[in-house]
């Protein structure tokens, strides 16, 4: 959030929520200073990769600064719309339960 000085920057719980969303939507190897961060979307959207995807998402969430624990995590892929939803509930330094859903069109995430 830019344009109005420091007062328009996200902070605390809002900044953490944006950070989690950004990390989930990021691709492995896409950031030159953090090549291992992100999800291997190209391979994790293949058949039989759901467990690996959940493992990567768990690791990503728990390694996010400010996330203390994962209460729940679920992914859903709607085959008709090809929308992948990642629903999570995490304990943060700000709250015992922060719930959110990140959704994206799976074909664009996989580069198909």
Structure description:
- It is built from four helices and three strands; from the N terminus they run αααβββα.
- The chain is an alpha+beta fold and 112 residues long.
- The chain has a single domain, classed as Nuclear Transport Factor 2, Chain: A (Roll), CATH 3.10.450.
- It has a three-stranded antiparallel beta sheet.
- The chain is globular and about 45 Å long.
- The N and C termini lie far apart (31 Å).
- The mean pLDDT is 86.
List the helices and strands and how they pair.
Elements: H1 12-25, H2 41-44, H3 50-62, E1 67-78, E2 83-92, E3 98-105, H4 106-110
Antiparallel strand pairs: 1-2, 2-3
The order of strands across the largest sheet is 1-2-3
Strand content: 25-35%
For the largest beta-sheet, the strand count, sense and barrel status come to: 3 strands, antiparallel
Q: How many strand segments?
A: 3
Name the features.
112 residues, alpha+beta, Nuclear Transport Factor 2, Chain: A, 32% helix
Q: Could you provide a short overview of the structure?
A:
The protein is an alpha+beta fold and 112 residues long.
